[in-house]
Amino acid sequence: MAKVDRRVVRTQEAIKKAFLELMAEKNFDNITIQDISDRANINRATVYLHYMDKFDLLDKIMEEHISNMSDFCESEADMEWIEATAHCMVYLEQNYLFFSTMLASEGARFFRTRFVQHNIEEFRKEVDVTQGKNLGQNEEVVAEFAANAYVGIVEWWLKNKMPYSPKEMAEKVGDLLERII
């Protein structure tokens, strides 16, 4: 396994943090590579060493978080709804800058679409339309409904600066999801 250069990791983290801070302050279209490099306290060429442009940077950040959420979901496979939801809420809290920027400030509507799609795929694994509360329902409709409701409540939670702890939100949201899925 290749050794990770901590300087590279620190530089990439500084670039991502600067970019997210800028997205929280202004429209994506108005952000320049110079803005990012100034905020990260590095030169423009360093940004281009790591990312082709701001679109590549945005895409890489979104992919990283979607991948991390997928890893979290995989680790939740044997958890109860409330426990699994608490797991996700803690991740959202730990990555507040990213999610509040991407969802609450509408800084990147494209992320919301991908976040919903990720959740549809995860909820689809849980839907059983052959028996119980979803007997006779359409699997796609149930998964779409659950995913959009979940992302909507996450947006509300972030926009309101997380008025409930991750555990409290998990209990509220997990209970609701249990009724749907």
What gap, in angstroms, lies between the N and C termini? 41 Å
How does the helix and strand content classify structurally?
A: mainly alpha
Largest sheet: none
What proportion strand?
Answer: under 5%
Total beta strand runs:
0
Following the backbone from N to C, one meets helices and strands in this order, namely: HHHHHHHHH
Number of contiguous helices: 9
Level of helix content? over 70%
Oligomer: single chain
Low-confidence stretches: none
Query: So what's the overall shape?
Result: elongated
In brief, what are we looking at here?
This protein has helices at residues 6-25, 33-40, 44-50, 54-75, 81-94, 96-104, 109-124, 139-159, 166-180. It has 181 residues and is mainly alpha-helical. Helix 1 (6-25) packs across helix 2 (33-40) and helix 6 packs across helix 8 (139-159).
Task: Walk me through what this model shows.
With about 180 residues, the chain is mostly helical. The chain is built from nine helices and no strands. It has helices at about 5-25, 35-40, 45-50, 55-75, 80-95, 95-105, 110-125, 140-160, 165-180. It is elongated, with a radius of gyration of 18 Å. The termini are far apart. The mean pLDDT is about 90.
